[in-house]
Amino acid sequence: MNPISNIWNYPKTSAAGLLIAIASIAGVLSQQGITLGGAGTGTVVTLVSGLATALLGLLARDPGTGSSSTGSTAKLGAWAMIALLLPLPFMGGCSATGVAQDIVNWTPALQSAVATVNSTAALLAPADAPIFVAATVGFDAATNVLVAQAKAYLANPSASVLAQLQAAVVAFQQQVNASLLSAAKITNPNSQQHVLNALNAVGTVVSSILALVESISGKAAVAAMAAHSTIKLAAVRPYLDEAEAAAVVASHYGEPVELARLQVARAEFSAVQAGF
After folding, report:
1. pTM, to two decimals
2. Residue 214's closest CA among 204, 203, 226?
3. Which of 49, 58, 91, 166 has the most CB atoms less than 10 A away?
4. What is the DSSP letter of 10?
5. H helices within 32-158, ranges in order?
6. How far is 198 from 202, CA to CA, in rounded Å?
7. pLDDT 10s digits, 117-162
8. What DSSP state is assigned to residue 121?
9. Whose CA is closest to 84, among 109, 107, 60?
């Protein structure tokens, strides 16, 4: 395919690809500590990445007319979903302390989501409740450990405490993934919907914390975290609800759902790229 004619025939998709490339390069530069100078309270790299992401969001919402534009919009939406090559906190150019505070800020939502899990069994068909209870029995303990480690890291952001936080979030992520796989054993449609709603809420918070922890972890540490993630994201992808995840993130950050949807997609892609 001629690249020049491709750009001419599909300008919006090509523009989205260019913006994703810019955001990707900015992410690599940031991870390597290259700032290209200051820009306001942030850096040139964070400014360029933020502008590229914002423009990508505008492109993704650009309406079209006719069947051909519908196909183009679908392709553009796919490109937009790939635009997650930077972790969530990078968009705001947060420091390690800011990330630590954000992790702690997520803990009330995590505790609330787990409380919902604990009350969900009563809504299930009698045959399904024992499966769900067995699959989520460790959620309370995992929540307590993760909340404690998040607060410990905020108080003392050292390498040793970070290592404990890394282990805690990966362990919880694996528990959630295992629980999502267990949902496949529940055949009652009403029960399964209750189960997936509850698990997706917990999974969204844990995934958000994982993205935050990943953003302040070195390459070797992230690789070690991924190595302990034996149940990969690809295995549970059919059970994830992107709309629910976006709603949770939008509510937490007080932002539009459209932006939250892109952030969720970016975090998901980043996790897959890292080996989760």
Report:
1. 0.69
2. 226
3. 49
4. -
5. 44-60, 66-82, 96-120, 129-135, 139-155
6. 7
7. 999 999 999 999 999 999 999 999 999 999 999 999 999 989 999 9
8. G
9. 60
